[in-house]
Design brief:
transferase, 5 strands, five-stranded antiparallel β-sheet, alpha+beta, NEDD8-conjugating enzyme UBC12, Ubiquitin Conjugating Enzyme, ATP binding
């Protein structure tokens, strides 16, 4: 169902522009109820935004926007995903870079956009207590919070 502002809420995506021709398998998207997707430019399905609104856990009630840029190498290369919302999270640095293994070394061509969406949603649901931030992200937290 398309929401005001172009966002589509959970369930199969209602994108009307020949999703069967898209390498993204848009017609197979099955969004969690806490996610909405926005294809602002119906002629460019390779650039879109995802809104995640966790309904439980520490980030409950938050709204987090991610931008997706799918390159010509997809599905052999993962899409570029950035968090556009400033958030203090052990897997998201201050520039919005996301630390999710399936976006880097664990990417496989059999993975889909749906896999990434569920992976991003999972980041906001798991308990991060006692989790140490990846080395590349620690500097930003030290700068903001001090300490190690």
């Amino acid at each position: 169902m398309t929401q005001p502002g172009g966002w589509s809420r959970g369930g199969p995506s209602p994108v009307s522009m020949s999703p069967s021709n898209s390498p993204l398998h848009i017609n197979e998207l099955n969004l969690p109820k806490t996610c909405e997707i926005d294809f602002s430019d119906q002629d460019d399905l390779l650039h879109f935004r995802l809104l995640i609104c966790p309904d439980e856990g520490f980030y409950k009630g938050g709204k987090f926007v991610f931008s997706f840029k799918v390159g010509q190498g997809y599905p052999h290369d993962p899409p570029k995903v950035k968090c556009e919302t400033m958030v203090y999270h052990p897997n998201i640095d201050l520039e919005g870079n996301v630390c999710l293994n399936i976006l880097r070394e664990d990417w496989k061509p059999v993975l889909t956009i749906n896999s990434i969406i569920y992976g991003l949603q999972y980041l906001f649901l798991v308990s991060t207590a006692g989790v140490q931030a990846p080395v590349g992200i620690r500097g930003g937290y030290q700068e903001v919070f001090g300490g190690d």
